[in-house]
Request: fold
Amino acid sequence: MHRIVNYVKAVNEALHIAMESDAKVITFGLGVDDPKCIFGTTAGLKEKFGSERVFDMPVSENALTGVAIGASLNGIRPVMSHQRLDFFLLGMDQLVNNASKWFYMFGGKRSVPITIRLILGRGWGQGPQHSQNLQAWFAHIPGLKVVMPVTPYDAKGLLLSSIFDDNPVIYLEHRWLHNLEGEVPEGDYRVPIGKAHVIKQGEDLTIVSLSYMTIEALHAVDVLERQGIHCELVDLRTVSPIDWETVFQSVKKTGRVLALDTATETLSIAGEVVAKVSMELFDALKSPPRRLALPDFPTPTSLALTEKYYRRAEDIVNIVGEMLGNNLNIKEILDSRKSFHDVPGDWFKGPF
Amino acid sequence: MTAIVDIDTKRKMLFQLKRIRAVEETIAKKYSEGKMRCPTHLCTGQEAIAVGVCAALRNDDFVVSTHRSHGHYLAKGGDLKKMLAEIYGKATGCSGGKGGSMHLIDESVGFMGSTSIVGGTIPIGTGLGLSIKLNGTDQVSCVFFGDGATEEGVFYESLNFAVLKGLPLLYICENNFYSVYSPLHVRQPSGRNIFEMARCFGIESSKGDGNDVIDVYSIVSQSVDYIRTQGKPIFLEFTTYRWHEHCGPNFDNDIGYRTCEEYLWWRGKDPIALLINNIKNNNEIGDPEIKNIEKIITEEVNEAFHFAEISQFPHSEDAFTQLFKL
Reply:
């Protein structure tokens, strides 16, 4: 039976299931029980599980990260949510110095089973401080797992896996995916951390993608298909640890790789994909690997200034054309645009 | 505020004071051998706070601590051999050689870990307090930190949260007047009392003589009763003084950040001498018993150092294990 729900509902279901199946799961964050319930993702939790286990928090990102760590040392499984990643930067000390190292630096005595949900912004003037996609920061720290689910199915299954993982997991949730609908089974199921998903098979070129860029890639792959180019689309789902086996298997088959990223280009996950593929599969490559990520600038705010800043399906098609030596047509994509480039669709009316 | 403390408690505390002193001074003596290859912060001179606080705690109460944690670990009952082996970088160390002097742990006695970033365990101890409340037990979570940590953001954030949620927290500020070599007066405005500042958050607080173990024990015993029965946090400031350099086995009064007079004044307030005076004034323990305590400690400490020295190093490949719990 097909059961279609959106991303927000999928996240919400995962939280309900986790809290119901384990009384040690708690969830907190600014706004978890306010009228908007973090874009609806935490709706109904406080009513069902009470204010001891579901609570708003002081605006103290660093201490509350430490509180989550401390509670987890004594059997609690905290899920902390922040409405933008940017605010969480104040918690990097506790995350990097303590959460990521606790199991290692005490010789495996005690792990830190915490999940930190961070929402990533894009467009609608989110600007320099509401749209940073710093997955590479987290992925750079040994001892952290970092997931970036794209589909509602993965959103639910990966959140449940994250909460019940015995290690700290950073769960990066792109705001532009919140309204995305897809098939989501009822009840508890798990999507394994560390496994990529080959969304589409193809022979000509591998697109390795993550988070919202996978949606742009899906449009691009569709258009390319009609122009006789068959791309394989690999959605990483987990950016630490990366499922290299799946990436390598695909690139061995196609001989070409384009890595996409929602972050700025230099030292990005896409850069890591290019580096690793180049080192491991140099002889299998038919053309130099490419990456498509954001320019190395802070995010501008104005509608006009973001026009060339963000990457979209047409940019993917253009790069694929360059890699294959073909002149490809992007008119179909441009003609299909119904909304401004700074929103994911008509459903998004701001403000953040 | 010095209550009547029974002789058994005094005897135990004297033993702990002397044991910690013996461990720290043996480390200092042997550090130059180059076998303890990690930054080591000795607590000589500051032992009374660790001993007085931990004597008032139960085995199942939690403690988290700082870079200068040997005394806290030992006073809480942490395994001496495993601590020394850890400092020697051996596989038998409490953290298997991955932590060193600044990362001690012995969960069997509630010592949940020490870390080296200033203020870093304040929110972690606070989170342990939250877990106690959620689990519905009557434990207390005790956090040791120094005066420098009261300048960190997480200090204020954690106090606010503990008061907001009514958590069973015992915050112990060991004020030794220096953060490394920066004196308190260049870091906080003159005339401020840290314990009074803390009180502004709505937390009960007071101050005691951190070199007088009877004073520490008396204040903390009352505080722990309050925390267990009221389910509210308490903040205590104890003044004290470290004898050695900030980090390492030597004395550093010659480098110019503190005076010899100041140092000697604090040496005159030796926590061990103060307790022995108290005991002798009350004719409670005689010299033969003190000698016997010293003998037992010397044997134990020598044996523990021997254990650390003869223990095997971990395999170099073990560096690449325990990244994640499987």
Summary: Chain B has one domain: 7-309. Chain B touches chain A through 45 residues (CB under 8 Å). Chain B has a mean pLDDT of 97.
